[in-house]
Amino acid sequence: MSYIHETISNLKNTSPAQAEFYQAVEEVLDSLAPILESNKHYQQQAIIQRLVEPERQIMFRVPWVDDEGNIQVNKGYRVEFNSALGPYKGGLRFHPSVNASIIKFLGFEQIFKNALTGLPIGGGKGGSNFDAKGKSDGEIMRFCQSFMNELYRHIGPTTDVPAGDIGVGAREIGYMFGQYKRLTGRYEGVFTGKSLLWGGSLVRKEATGYGVVYFAENMLSVKQESLKDKKCLISGSGNVAIYAIEKLYQLGATPITCSDSTGTIYHESGIDLALLKELKEGSRSSLIGYLEEYKEAQFIPIDDYPKDGHAVWRFSADAAFPCATQNELTLADAQALIENGCQLVSEGANMPSTQDAINTFIEAKISYGPGKAANAGGVATSQLEMAQNSSMQTWSFEQVDQRLQEIMKNIFQTAHKTSIEFGQPGNLVLGANIAGFKRVADAMLEQGVV
Ligand code: NDP
Ligand code: 2IT
């Protein structure tokens, strides 16, 4: 295990103050010991040292003018992490918490996630510390245009293809695509998650949430179980959470919570999906508005959360779907879930569980689907969007959904089979990390020292 210590300590020296990035690297390296021991060529070829260093990191100034005429300045990022398997692919996150550590952890995760899909896509991520809350539509457009004034020169349909993430949906993609087109004069598939009116794919909007639930069904199927009649906890109330809830209802389960940056809603008879969409898709108002329609629901404001975790995980349920953000599920949350009978966790968010929470799930032997496997349906469907764009075709909802289901099944089976092969049956963290690593590392070996 000394290579883990050595790698992290090198990173701390060369890339200081990037706690989330070290956390993501450590989690992956922790799983790789068995494959590194039996395949010395990975170490001889410095694969780990090369993997943890992005191929290219772009940081830039994003100046824009607000509605009062004041000049605002944000930071912009694009980390082009690894292109062994294809063009850099990964979302853009706009959130005030964004910094180099967050973008690097997301980009690092994306390498293995994209490899697991089996599709030809490399790993990248980008974003800005821009806070969309309270901004007018005009301000959002001017910000997106300024962001693109720099980013456009680094991206392209065969080099780097961004998409959405927290704070970036169809509206932001539209403004960025418009500016890209104006700057380059090219109408091409340089983004995914585009509107259906101009090159988007059916199912991309739903894909991450649906995929997380498909992944959960696959985990349950090996135990001859299903999601039907299961009570489910969901965190978040954005794109991933909403479509996870939609698919859970379609499969006969009952989602009883959702959350946002202001607090958690608990609604015992089931979250009203239409109301949630009304509150959150487009307008992004606080979940407290849910209580105006449902007096019997509870709202727990974040100030009342337990000191050691999050209110959403303290309710009793059969399954949990973290779909908000990183480190939103702590050790105490994991213990509470298990004590209350939770048998399955499928992660829609990236790195939502802390390392000690993950260890708790693995020791308890519940079904645990790590984000890089369970939430890969979004990026996989992005690749299907790229395939449609480059072949000038449009596939039906059923065709894309069918492909998504096959991909999620395939990811589950690959991770599950790998966990058995490496002596820890059912440990999908180990299975996903080793299977993703192997595909990228073997491609890197074949492409020489680049
Ligand atoms: P959205 O912006 O649509 O929604 C994010 C949700 O999480 C909102 O409810 C937001 O609350 C809440 N949230 C965000 N940050 C925090 C925070 N620091 N504390 C509390 N709540 C927070 O994003 P997505 O649904 O697209 O993304 C959710 C997660 O899924 C992220 O981890 C993302 O990386 C991951 N993911 C997304 C994919 C995609 O295709 N979109 C693909 C794979 C993973 P509020 O409404 O108050 O802002
Ligand atoms: O974390 C993710 O996989 C995403 N935000 C989606 C990336 C993409 O390119 O669709």
UniProtKB/TrEMBL annotation:
SMART domains: ELFV_dehydrog (SM00839). The keyword ATP-binding does not apply. InterPro entries: Aminoacid_DH-like_N_sf, Glu/Leu/Phe/Val/Trp_DH, Glu/Leu/Phe/Val/Trp_DH_C, Glu/Leu/Phe/Val/Trp_DH_dimer, Glu_DH, Glu_Leu_Phe_Val_DH, NAD(P)-bd_dom_sf, NAD_bind_Glu_DH. Residues 201-448 form the Glutamate/phenylalanine/leucine/valine/L-tryptophan dehydrogenase C-terminal domain. The keyword Oxidoreductase applies. Signal peptide: none annotated. Keywords: Oxidoreductase. Gene3D superfamilies: Glutamate Dehydrogenase, chain A, domain 3, Leucine Dehydrogenase, chain A, domain 1, NAD(P)-binding Rossmann-like Domain. It comes from the Bacteria. Coiled coil: none annotated. It catalyses: L-glutamate + NADP(+) + H2O = 2-oxoglutarate + NH4(+) + NADPH + H(+). Homohexamer. Catalyzes the reversible oxidative deamination of glutamate to alpha-ketoglutarate and ammonia. Belongs to the Glu/Leu/Phe/Val dehydrogenases family. This is Glutamate dehydrogenase. The gene is gdhA.
